[in-house]
Amino acid sequence: MSLKGRDIVAITDLDMDEIETILNEAQKMVPAARGEVKNDSLSGMILAALFFEASTRTRLSFETAMHRLGGDVITIAGQEGSSLIKGETLADTIRMAEGYSDIIAIRHPKEGAARLSATFSKIPVINGGDGAGQHPTQTLLDLFTIKQNLGDISKLHVTIGGDLKYGRTTHSLSLALGRMGARMTFVAPKRIQMVDHILDDLNRMDASFDVVYDIKETIPDTDVLYMTRIQKERFPDEEEYMKVAGAFRITAEMLEPAKKKMIVMHPLPRIDEIHHSVDATPHARYFQQAFNGVPVRMALLHLLLED
Amino acid sequence: MKDVKITPLRNGTVIDHIKPGMALKILPLLNIDQDYSTGLSIAMYVQSKKHQLKDIVKIEDKELHHKEMNRLAVITPNATISIIRDFKVVKKFKVKLPKVIEGIVRCENINCITNGKEPVVSKLVRAQEDPVKFKCYYCGRIQNMLEKRII
Q: What is the number of domains present in chain A?
């Protein structure tokens, strides 16, 4: 099976075999991602990293991935640095960028921006996050981290907590986990619980999931605790935010009843959701997860361009 | 005596059982605008045999294709189409929602890229059968109440 020339806009663009291929390729990329061995397979090729919205990990890991494969990178970081601010359409920007590069990674504040880019582009487009929509490369690195630590994903119980309404990483991840047969528990305050259209999609695929409101009761039975940032601006006042943020703050003490092999993940940046005391526990995996962005994106760049 | 509101059609297409009040909305979908030069009759809020209100459109000397008629299902899912030749019905069918709806309905997601100034028409693809649901091809959002967002 070849992924050469494909666009990766949503995790649902990939079938299970293709996801497996990417995760296996990512495992092979780990030594080169660490800089332990040299890989020049994309020498002479250029990645256009078009980031029209703030990003630290996604943009840096895409750029690192391309450099680690011997390729070059051209970057737009923020709308200020592009002609979008002058009123240029994204469709025009994309047709310009395809002339300058071999592959495009895009992040944009509007949902559907990556699909639109793929429609206009003759070179492969990878979605680095579109509004509150899809973020498939984050999902791939999340799946990679889970598989690396715990093996067969279909046998796992994954608790996804925090901002499930606006947090795009949780949308893509739950769709992928649902297809893989994992059991899921969504835990969040009502105001920011998982959105209906994702729950509808999960029901259509017969996925197994629960929606709950108390994080403590889910901890003993979970294999993966995936936390996301709760955004202050989603709440009407500071007091209500503090109440919710307090109830959803994971501490080392809260993890005492957890399974020995349970892992805690977070797409980062974290604010208050995971206390620093968790960093020293054997459960913390969020920095390994952030590193995994490099081998996973190396695998994707390699498979879409070379194979 | 029964009132005759529209005279019988010799040749052409009759669109019957249109949702009351929607007759004028379907004309753009049939490419009927101010430049249209063939005979056209529209009856609105007439009583059906079942004493329900409906609209009727009769288009003279034009047989519409099955495919273009299916677009009407977005606005009026129970409409029936009759093709008339020499005062006789030669073909009759009910409209059916197509697999892809392009350029007719705006995506319900206000933050969708298609609701901006990009050079694309909206595109909704069928995501579910029974009940039929469409999702935006671009942003992936499942759409509700299509008839409220006709472009």
A: 2
